Amino acid sequence: MARIANAVRPRLARAEEAVRPQVARAVEAVKPRLAHAVDITKPQLARLTAVRPGKTWQYTAVAAGAGLALTAVVVSAAGPWDSTGQRTAERHRAVALDGTGGADHDGTSGGEGVPAPAPSAGSVLAGLGTAAKGAARATPTPASLAAVLDPLLKNPALGSRHTAVVVDVATGERLYGAGPDQALTPASTTKIATAVAALSALGADHRFTTRAVLEPDTEELVLVGGGDPTLTAHAETDGWAGLRDLARKTAKALKKRGLDEITLSYDTTLFTGSQVHPIGVNDNLAPVTALTADEGRTDDSTSGPVTRVADPAADATKKFASVLREQGVKTTAPGPSKATSRSESLAEVTSPPLSTLVERMLTNSDNDIAETLARQVAVATGTRADFAGGGRAVAATLTRLGLPLKGTAFRDGSGLDRDDRLTAHLLTALLVTAGDPGRPELRAVLTGLPVAGFTGTLAGRYGDGAAGVVRAKTGTLTGVNTLAGTVVDRDGRMLAFAFLTADTTDPGAAQSALDRAATALAGCGCG
């Protein structure tokens, strides 16, 4: 702890003065849940010390995650809190940090563990960014940021083309821009756009329902997929909707009707078009269908690349049938069908709120969730629910939010398609919009971002840099490295940033260069 606990006391003091009124109101609202957390963090906060000028800023990570101390005073990373004062999702991810965590598109990162479901971001986030507006804190100047970033972004490891934007989240003012409107392949940072579109179109509290229905004339049992990408067939559901639970409820309902042998079918008609991504069969993504269990994984993993089943809907229905048999109900071999309007609902299970799914998608860089959410946006907006339709629906939804889409192209929801195009301007605009106090339904976009050094695709990065202070979505394809997220600078300002690169030749070197740029922002007293 002595090595890690440095550099934050001056920043905490400045940030605390700026946001004291908002934090006081938030603490009053959640005092019973935070009291225990405060007791836990007091000893660590007492030991915080300053470092010599020129050192990178580091963060004391109490309770093995992005700790309560900095989070509470800057109100930048607030989200669902458990009784230890830590985001529930981050606590569970921190426990699973045997590997690098998360998944990205090049297949070099992986690891098991998944964020536990957490409620939508609550009122503790209502003041995000507002405190700084009225606080006498120095705003970083374009000239000072250019002096810091220009040399770092000239690193040859960042390839022949790169763009960057830094924005003050509180004011929306652009503080730095290098090719802000040049559209490049965004890789997995596309998921930020998908998240904003899904939360806007569907609402943070929206849930997806998987149903078992009975056709009255034929006594055919139909398992109807509702497009829940987190449905699980595991005995331990960890809060996700359980296929086994649905089967047990269904068997009970059938027996009440005197049925112990039925014809079994499954309905995936909520989505249309090809299930296979344009890149082809890939370990980073299962065939996209409205009915799937455990993302069609062929092992017990919950994130990262792995071989997938060829037909997730049929696989899920077979698992459903297996539990029915355990409950004394025999079934035929399942086949595709479509439930009629006359069907009777026997049982259903629902996903956690959409905000929780968005957090899991962003933390783990989950391509399966991303592609499903893009299609759910298409369904919600009356667009054809396939890969192309999902992209059009995401773009249309972002346009309605007034976001800058000039030059952009959405070919999918995950960023696996190399023909996707986003700008650094759009990515920072998405983050600023997610932090708008008037749009609390979008807050999961910020709370779901991986935490440097602790969660998801940033778990193995920033070991000697801005661990716990940077929160960002990574993106990696061959020749492409991107990073977009938020950081709190030395003056307590929350900054949104986006760095996109093209034609990189060494992904490790490119990642390190991007991390140094984000770390520089964290250590910047650039007012």
TrEMBL record:
<protein>
    <submittedName>
        <fullName>D-alanyl-D-alanine carboxypeptidase/D-alanyl-D-alanine-endopeptidase</fullName>
        <ecNumber>3.4.16.4</ecNumber>
    </submittedName>
</protein>
<dbReference type="InterPro" id="IPR012338">
    <property type="entry name" value="Beta-lactam/transpept-like"/>
</dbReference>
<keyword id="KW-0121">Carboxypeptidase</keyword>
<comment type="similarity">
    <text>Belongs to the peptidase S13 family.</text>
</comment>
<feature type="region of interest" description="Disordered">
    <location>
        <begin position="325"/>
        <end position="352"/>
    </location>
</feature>
<dbReference type="GO" id="GO:0009002">
    <property type="term" value="F:serine-type D-Ala-D-Ala carboxypeptidase activity"/>
</dbReference>
<feature type="region of interest" description="Disordered">
    <location>
        <begin position="98"/>
        <end position="117"/>
    </location>
</feature>
<keyword id="KW-0378">Hydrolase</keyword>
<keyword id="KW-0645">Protease</keyword>
<dbReference type="InterPro" id="IPR000667">
    <property type="entry name" value="Peptidase_S13"/>
</dbReference>
<dbReference type="Pfam" id="PF02113">
    <property type="entry name" value="Peptidase_S13"/>
</dbReference>
